[in-house]
Amino acid sequence: MTRSDESYERLADRFRPTFAKIAEGAVTRELDRELAHEAVGLLRDAKFGAVRVPAEYGGFGASITDLFRLLIELGEADSNLPQILRAHFGITEERLHDPDAARRERWLRRIGEGAVIGNAVTETGDGALGTVATAITDDDGDWRITGAKHYSTGSLYADWIAVLARRGEEDQGFAMVRADDPGLSRVDDWDGFGQRLTASGTTLLTGAATLPEDVFWYADRGPNYMIAFYQLVHLATLSGIARAIVRDAAAYVRGRRRVFSHGSGATPASDPLVQQVVGRLSGLAFAAEATTLAAVGRLEHINRLRADGEVPQAAYDDAEIATSRAYITVADTVLRAANLLFETGGASLVRRSEALDRHWRNARTLAVHNPVIYKERAVGDHVLNDAAPGYSWIVGVKK
Predict the structure, then answer these.
(1) Alpha helices, DSSP H, located in 97-151
(2) In the CATH scheme, what is the code of domain 3-115?
(3) What's the predicted TM-score (pTM) here?
(4) Residue 399, exposed/middle/buried by CB under 10 A (0-12, 13-18, 19+)?
């Protein structure tokens, strides 16, 4: 075991009892559609949201690789949880590199004290690509936000909401709004067949308050790896699902005594064909996790370069392309594993009480963030024509 592995194990040991408690209730929450307030509370109590926050602000100062390894473990316990916290860790990561020292310290301290951040970014309708209708108005320094957002993942569990809004026609950025602001309403109307507990519903803003110092303008951003970061949270979650598939397949096979007449063993666990399926599942899970962490390594490399000085644009391009390559591979790998799981047994595998279908439903839902076909095209264009990667994955109408 390397020194970095030993460091990770010490960190992970702090959270594994919490992950285990979350895993215990995962099937019940899924079957009853019981929102994960208790699970998020357990993570808040364990200060999981402060994993990347420096120790002087109340966090653990973990590396970005350690964060993603932990997200994979959390995804194995319940795949809803890493997605719930996706915006939280994204905003945390941006603040770690915020050139505004006062704002950086203010927000890292809040997160270190346990604040959880959700998002309100996406708008439906016929808005043009790259634009938002949600607007910030300024009445003699009283800043207010009005608009409607959808797919507001994690916001029902959050203390603060990062709202993508514009001021005027050009300036866009994330405005931080308290979740209990009287001008903000959160609606639990997410009806997807997978990731059902992520609270990815509607957020309505009718004059919600924000402060000028708590708006993170796009124009103030320098080069960054945040698009790759957000995509990699999905890949970590998918990798966690692959781990859960192996775990559940093994538990099911070990617990069975009935065999098929065409089988080759006295028990399912001694049947070479069943062993082969479980071995393949294990290999697919290993491949998904290894691929995800290889792409995360590109972000780690950027952080090392940043610590020493300037980061060349080529490093950001490499991280974005690597993440798209990983997305192509991991999405396909985990979906195959979720289907192959059902080759380990018979009709009892599809009992609703087992909820094993959740792995495919959750993986399928995550894999459309964003469609793999466009990842493949972007990577192909890069390989064939040395095209630069795109740094936005947004939806809208071309005008």
Answers:
(1) 101-112
(2) 1.10.540.10
(3) 0.96
(4) exposed
